[in-house]
Amino acid sequence: MPQVAITGLGFVTSIGNEQVTVLDNLRELRHGIDYFPDFAGADSPVKLAGTVKDFSVNSCDPEDWTYPDAYRVRREVLRGLAPHGLFAYCAMQQAIEDAGLSEEEVSNLDTGIFTASAGSAKMLHSHLERMNRHGVNRCSPLGIVNSIVGTLTFNLASAYHIKGASAGFVSACASSGHALGYAWDEITLGRQKRMFVVGGEDGNRESILPFAGMRALSQCKDPEIASRPFDKDRDGFVGTGGSVVMVLEDEELARKRGATIYARMVGWGQASDGYNVAISHPDGDGLANAMRRAAACAKVSLKDINYINAHAPSTPIGDLSEIRALKQTFNGDRPAISSTKALTGHGLSLASIMEAAFTVLGLRHNFMPGSAHIMSLDPEATGLRIIKETEDKGPALAMSNSSGFGGANVSLIFQHI
Known about the structure:
Elements: E1 4-12, H1 19-28, E2 33-35, E3 48-50, H2 75-78, H3 83-99, H4 103-106, E4 111-116, H5 121-134, H6 151-159, E5 166-169, H7 175-188, E6 194-201, H8 205-208, E7 242-250, H9 251-256, E8 263-272, H10 285-298, E9 307-309, H11 316-330, E10 336-338, H12 341-344, H13 351-365, E11 385-386, E12 397-404, E13 408-415
Parallel strand pairs: 4-5, 4-6, 9-10, 9-12, 10-11
Antiparallel strand pairs: 1-7, 1-8, 2-3, 6-7, 8-13, 12-13
Helix pairs in contact: 3-6, 7-13, 10-11
């Protein structure tokens, strides 16, 4: 089967809007969590978010938005985008340039795109409210395509003239992990030569604050410690938005065209908890099965995994479930483990690809990012090698985990080249 190389990355995140800044902040454990104006009202017990800088997308009219001067978005494209669609459009430009792809290499039958997002609750609400107040004929003609689940696929496939496979994935916080896994399948099965994989979320009041009703969000007011996976006093996750794009490519093709290869994706696994609509299995059985299946798919031994970017969102239940999954899976082996959500916050559908991209950066630049903000390690994590500081030694094999509602679990494995 073809080997799958990572040849391009694009970032619009709370810790940076281009690779150099993201890499520096990731190494130095500088977070992107701030007080969020959308949460300033007395009705919100939550005050913090991982904020995307240099973009202003609060208006429901895309023509009011502002974004960095480095990007130019045609008006007819902009009008079809949600806020995270703009983030993704810009990250896509970065990834194409980073991979050194020509227009012909982007737009052909052998290049496809898979995306992951929850759609835009804010844009959808605005359109429905307008319809109910002013009548059906006053609805925006692009109101559907810039708001519903699938908006990333519709807009990016059209704007970038994608002619290969295209689809969107919806499995909550495992969504972009599924997109990466099935993109890997497309290439290894010979169906496509190249795949863009995109994750994105608005990261605004409408996409984050409803989780407060589940008691899932941190109510900590200190940006320095609010997101603290694996800490015994963690009290919930901090939400974030943005977009990350990864280019997966048939390695032989990539080498022929002289592309820079960050790392190789060697396999993936998935499994479901079959337990609860919102709560992870208490012993982490589904995630443990996903990790075992990923290793089997990649034809590697679990003892050879050197680093794990954990899902660990900083929730009491979620972190504990993963701790138990890691213990039962690795059974005495001690890979380095960290959760970069301490720096970015939790990106929901975006989380998996964002953390996979961080893992790939570590493989390329020979480091493992620490798990920041741990003041007192959860006693249940005793025996795991959770690293609190960045280690300047890169892994040979790395795993990235994600878990979502309904007990969806995805594990991805990447290899240093």
